[in-house]
Amino acid sequence: MTLRINSTAPDFVAFSTHGEISFHEWIGDHWAILFSHPKDFTPVCTTELGYMAGLQEEFANRNCKVIGLSVDAVDQHHEWLRDIEETQGNAVTYPLIGDPNLEVAKAYDMLPEDVIDSSKGRTAVDNATVRSVFVIGPDKRIKAMLTYPMSTGRNFDEVLRLLESCQLTAKHQVATPVNWKSGEDVIIVPAVSDAEAKSRYPDGWKAPRPYLRIVPQPEKDSLN
């Protein structure tokens, strides 16, 4: 199945380092970040899991759960997590899904359907496309997707920025301009008429062009 933005995130039941997880039920009324890995004990992914562990509270403050995935089995995950804590300085307390039958990787279009249904004997290179990030809303729809090569560590500060931008759009119907950072001005989306915008923003907006209506970012505490 080809996934796109606004596709429903595939639901699944899988074992994780926190026990069995039914994904949609686990998300509940939260946002979620699902980020995947091609193999346990891989160097770049080790740094990523550790860094994300250090950022987990920032995501939680934005009503967002974090969950990882690797194509190996959960018993290997527990060994890997010990390495991550020792080398990166952060304990991974979010769940890490085991996907030894590649079911989740295939459901999320990270591997072709005709790939053999086992991670046994497969290398990180075989699974190179399992290097994705999915931002999922409380409605269980995919709001954003990122895929990286194995050689490039993902920027989870950027994922945090992306999450906040998606939340602003969902809550306030605003978009974020190029290189936007939290707290900076935002743009009223074209779907909002001037009449509706006036009710939302009684102090008005800057408009260098009619289609470019700029307002201060709404208050953070109203995001969720």
Give a brief outline of the structure.
By secondary structure, the chain is an alpha+beta fold. It has six helices and eleven strands. Helix 2 packs across helix 3.
Give the SSE layout.
Blueprint: E1 13-16, E2 19-22, H1 23-27, E3 31-37, H2 43-60, E4 64-70, H3 74-88, E5 96-98, H4 103-107, E6 132-136, E7 142-147, H5 156-172, E8 174-175, E9 186-188, H6 194-200, E10 206-209, E11 212-215
Parallel strand pairs: 3-4, 4-5
Antiparallel strand pairs: 1-2, 3-6, 6-7, 8-9, 9-11, 10-11
Structure, explained:
By secondary structure, this protein is α+β, with helices and mostly antiparallel strands. The chain contains six helices and eleven strands. The strands form three sheets. A five-stranded mixed β-sheet has the order 5-4-3-6-7, with helices on one face. Strands 8-9-11-10 form a four-stranded antiparallel β-sheet. A two-stranded antiparallel ribbon has the order 1-2. Strand 1 and strand 2 (19-22) form a beta hairpin. The longest helix is centred in the N-terminal third of the chain and has 18 residues, at 43-60. The two termini are 30 Å apart.
